[in-house]
Design brief:
alpha/beta, 9-stranded mixed beta sheet, two-stranded antiparallel ribbon, 6 helices, 31% helix, binds 1-O-pyrophosphono-5-O-phosphono-alpha-D-ribofuranose, binds uracil
């Protein structure tokens, strides 16, 4: 079974609280998601492997550590996942970005796919799938399956807020995918929204409601 890492850092919790507030406007909401994504990426990359490299400082030759292994890829689930990309790229600027377009049908709550563009070397990368909201888990399960079908094996998932139902569904469908989450909320309501949550992340990011 995959691991679920809850980011209990006080800065992350403080910023999530501001995002939840219904009086927080799009500009601030975007800025907060960007900052939190960078902080979360720091934690979500904690186990990346290192290797030794010989270098020379101005003082002497020395053996120092650099990242080894595969290169990173970030895969936002459109639209709301886009709001997490820049924060992550500030930490790992050479990561490539793939996009998966999915929206949740408001009646069935099932994901509908409308776009996919991944880096050509995607199978050789460690991927982080990002979406602020993990609600029923339908979108996440479909997105991960999609990139697995293209041959990707090393995948982790990063969400700002998750419902317990969504975490369970992703773990059942993809037991190899670790989940890094800012906060685990109480439940889903009858419309599939996370409670207390923050409302519709895409609409709040882009002011479309
Ligand atoms: C939201 C959110 C997730 C999905 C989560 O996107 O960003 O992708 O819902 O719900 P689920 O876990 O029940 O699938 P939405 O479908 O509203 O599309 P948007 O990002 O374009 O607003
Ligand atoms: N999608 C959102 O944007 N918010 C929710 O609470 C659930 C799904």
């Amino acid at each position: 079974m995959s691991k679920v890492v809850v980011m209990d850092h006080p800065l992350i919790q403080h910023k999530i609280t501001h995002m939840r507030d219904k009086d927080t406007g799009s500009k601030e909401f975007r800025a907060l998601l960007d900052e939190i994504s960078m902080l979360m990426a720091y934690e979500a990359t904690r186990d990346l492997p290192l290797e030794e490299k010989q270098i020379e400082t101005p003082i002497c030759p020395t053996t120092a550590q650099v990242l080894s292994g595969k290169k990173l890829g970030v895969v936002p689930i459109l639209r709301a996942g886009l709001g997490m990309v820049d924060g992550i790229l500030r930490l790992v600027p050479h990561a490539r970005v793939g996009h998966i377009g999915l929206y949740r049908d408001p009646e069935t709550l099932e994901p509908v796919e409308y776009y996919c563009k991944l880096p050509s070397d995607v199978t050789e990368r460690d991927l982080i799938v990002v979406d602020p909201m993990l609600a029923t888990g339908g979108s996440a399960v479909a997105a991960i399956q999609f990139i697995k079908n293209r041959g990707c094996k090393s995948i982790r998932m990063m969400n700002l807020i998750a419902a317990p139902e969504g975490i369970r569904r992703v773990q059942e469908a993809h037991p190899d995918v670790d989940i890094y989450v800012g906060h685990v909320d109480e439940k889903l309501n009858e419309h599939g929204y996370i409670v207390p949550g923050l409302g519709d992340a895409g609409d709040r990011l882009y002011g479309t409601k």
